[in-house]
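ok, trying the design again with the full structure, not the truncated one.
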């Protein structure tokens, strides 16, 4: 049985994915227009994003995928399929992360003030910036699929996830802009390379749409939702929380985490 979606729902899902991806430009603007990184704000924001993504993954997205699979394949098989897809999502994003060298990993912390502290040659910095942009693109591809899938089913949840990923992408924009600007002296080049790296998210959404939508069924839908939950939990635990702690105090990151969970919980309750 095929699943149909309204054109308006598809367009909204793409728009939210585009918003999430291109927020790397915000990080780039911060790097190019300010002299010092507000580390406390970034710590709280990244912790908040992790809280939103972890809570919605376990409470809403995984449950919805599991319920769909149980409804169409029985309780035992449905549970097995949902758990397999959840850890399959973790394995997928883990493999992607494994093949990106640490020195070029987009989640290696960069600060605006690092522009005055870099001592390596400009050519190497330019190369670092380009590789960082490519690495971000690789990371953002499954994030785009996750945002699109969630928004397609529930625009409210899609908006929450898109906002969380947008916050998560701000430090990535800084990570691209800092070395490129210092190497070239061009704010325009640094901004556009950073901004463009976020395009991988809507590309991920487009590929997911073109490949999966013609075959969309309750089985594919349930598996995809459980897969997305796994991807988002891994991103939160492997990237967001470590980045939050690297930018500031441990407790600030946890306060942001709990606040993000609470805000997501209340927002879900308001739509019951």
């Amino acid at each position: 049985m095929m699943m149909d979606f309204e054109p308006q729902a598809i367009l909204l899902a793409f728009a939210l994915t585009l918003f999430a991806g291109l927020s790397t430009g915000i990080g780039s603007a911060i790097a190019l227009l300010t002299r010092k990184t507000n580390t406390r704000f970034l710590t709280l924001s990244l912790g908040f994003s992790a809280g939103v993504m972890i809570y919605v993954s376990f409470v809403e997205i995984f449950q919805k995928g599991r319920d769909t699979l149980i409804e169409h394949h029985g309780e035992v098989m449905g549970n097995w399929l949902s758990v397999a897809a959840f850890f399959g999502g973790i394995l997928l994003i883990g493999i992607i992360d494994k093949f990106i060298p640490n020195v070029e990993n987009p989640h290696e912390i960069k600060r605006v003030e690092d522009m005055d502290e870099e001592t390596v040659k400009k050519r190497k910095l330019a190369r670092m910036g380009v590789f960082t942009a490519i690495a971000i693109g690789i990371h953002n591809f499954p994030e785009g699929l996750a945002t699109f899938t969630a928004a397609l089913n529930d625009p409210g949840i899609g908006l929450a996830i898109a906002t969380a990923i947008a916050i998560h992408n701000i430090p990535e924009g800084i990570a691209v802009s800092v070395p490129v600007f210092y190497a070239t002296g061009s704010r325009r080049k640094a901004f556009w390379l950073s901004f463009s790296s976020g395009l991988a998210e809507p590309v991920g959404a487009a590929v997911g749409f073109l490949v999966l939508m013609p075959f969309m069924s309750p089985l594919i839908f349930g598996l995809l939702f459980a897969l997305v939950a796994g991807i988002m939990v891994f991103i939160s635990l492997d990237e967001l929380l470590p980045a939050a702690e690297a930018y500031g105090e441990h407790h600030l990151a946890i306060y942001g985490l709990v606040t993000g969970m609470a805000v997501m919980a209340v927002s879900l309750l308001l739509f019951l």
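Keeping the full-length input from now on. Confidence is low (pLDDT under 50) at residues 103-107.
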